[in-house]
Amino acid sequence: MAELDNVWNDLLRDVMENGVDKGDRTDTGTRSVFGRQVRFDVSKDSFPIITEKKIHWNSLITELVWFIKGKTNVEFLHEHGVGIWDQWADENGDVGPVYGKQWRKWEGPNGEKHDQLKTVIRNIRDNPDSRRHVVSAWNVAELDRMGLPPCHFAYQFYSKPTASGRELSVKVNQRSADAALGVPFNFSSYATLLILISHLTDHKPGEVIWSGGDIHIYQNHFDQVKRFLELDQYKEPKIELDETVSSLDGIDVSTVDLVGYEHGPFIKLPVAV
Q1: For the whole prediction, is pTM greater than 0.85?
Q2: In Å, how far are 138, 168, 171, 180, 210 from 37, measured between CA atoms?
Q3: pLDDT tens, 259-268?
Q4: Angle at Cα 154 formed by Cα 153 and Cα 158, nearest 5°?
Q5: End-to-end alpha-carbon separation of the chain, Å?
Q6: Which residues make beta-bridge pairs with 134?
Q7: With a cut of 70, which residues of the chain have pLDDT below it?
Q8: What is the DSSP letter of 110?
Q9: Which residues are catalytic?
Q10: What is the pLDDT of residue 273?
Q11: Would you state the pLDDT for residue 36?
């Protein structure tokens, strides 16, 4: 059935069975393990997304496009009916120099701006075998001004030749991973990013390799996690990509569409702020 459901279930069981109970920034309490890696295929005809429970696709693709456009105000999210960043925004809707700012306008010590994502795309095209296809959101000089410091803080692309053309994979590094709520979202968000960057660099998408640091389940998610592990799985859906898009600036919420997504129930989980 759905490959990603099994990857996620194994991770949830690992945390529940092998984790230690710890305090945390939110005073909610977690069960946590440290240092795990999973990988899943994006080269298939289907798209990797959790099917046991509903993942809200509009929120996922809108947030990703928000990052890609370099935006840091929730106005764009609200225009598409998404409020997932509201709790970290100030009275003007600003969340500080979070992901989008760092991906597209990393600010150096002299105030110079660096478009990391555009540079990576150019370098993948021009020098695909380079080992420097890295984008980082962990700008130490700006962490204190962020509404929420980046959880998935860096990613690296890897291009390889195959018999049918070059294939692109991405390795994601995540320091803090909310296994029940955020991680399924992160998995499919980076799968979507990989599809987009592969398209813009004339590659086929390969794998997502996800490396987590502190991987945890909040104590007020324990009951829901037990339920997740008992839910039915469904056949993975497909992705439809607008292949006329030829640049980062051309990417919008309508660029990628999820087709034929069958899923279990939407199960609301409290967000620890």
Answers
A1: yes
A2: 20, 18, 10, 16, 6
A3: 999 999 988 8
A4: 160
A5: 34
A6: 156
A7: 1, 272-273
A8: T
A9: 151
A10: 59
A11: 98
**Residue pointed to by tokens 């859906």:** 237
Q: Which amino acid is at 28?
A: T
CA distance 195 to 149: 26
For residue 157, what are its two tokens?
């692309």
pLDDT at 27: 86
Please name the helix (run of DSSP H) or strand (run of DSSP E) that holds residue 184, with its range, or none: helix 182-200
The CA–CA distances, whole Å, from 86 to 93, 144, 260 equal 7, 18, 30
Helix (H) or strand (E) holding 168: strand 165-178
Which pair of tokens denotes residue 240?
């439809």
**CA–CA separation, 138 vs 200, rounded Å?**
25
For the CA atoms of 240, 173, 26, 148, what is the dihedral angle to 10 degrees?
Answer: -70
Distances (CA, A) of 49 to 69, 164, 191, 250, 264: 23, 26, 9, 24, 12
